[in-house]
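Human: We require from you a protein record containing the residue sequence and its fold in token form, and nothing else.

Assistant:
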Amino acid sequence: ISKLDVDDRNGYGPETVTIYNGETGDYTYYVHNYSNELEMQKGGMAIVRVYKGDNAFPSYTFSLPSQLGRVWNVFNYNSSTGRIEVINQVSNSVIRK
């Protein structure tokens, strides 16, 4: 289970998401550029930081790759194992396994 804590619609971030222990399963985290102005890479740099528990430092940091598109598929998360599988690809659709 996750909750979008901050949804930045101005493009400067950060957006934050908290993942809670709850239902088991596989989840995909992605960022979608809803504006009709620019593809994501043309809009500038973006970063996703993943924190685990109360740790003050991120366990993972993802930087927007140099690819064009409107959907940044950042990672898959398996709630049973707590593992993150890196995707880090930009495309025009969500990549699912």
Summary: The mean pLDDT is 77. The radius of gyration is 13 Å. The CA atoms of residues 73 and 89 lie 5 Å apart. The chain is about 0% helix and 40% strand.
